[in-house]
Amino acid sequence: MAISFKDTTGIYESALSLRSKRSEVLAGNLANADTPNYKARDFDFHSALNASMATPNASGGHMRVTHQNHYQMNGGSPLGGELEYRIPTQPSIDGNTVEEQVEHAAFMENTLEHQAAFTMLNSRFKGLKAAIKGE
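RESULT FIELD:
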């Protein structure tokens, strides 16, 4: 009987990947906090996770492009789609929409949820290891 890692890891593999990509986006916002006219970006994690679990491409399948106007999956942004702009509560005079306290809070929340997903994935692998050893 073969073990499917997709069935074993469940949603946590996709969650870790998306959490890492969201960390990059949020870190980019923080790095550009003083850049004039920089627009803060983000994406809805839950929508992206649902989309990644629903698409055949996320599970290793391949999509066939049958027309030149078809969109390519996973192209352009980390999510295969467009990142959204964050709407500031207090826009700055120079056009920058990064609010450091909001970005720090989002980054820390994302970090905690990344660690939680990693812990759950790690416990799954420990369970597999114990089952293989017969413990």
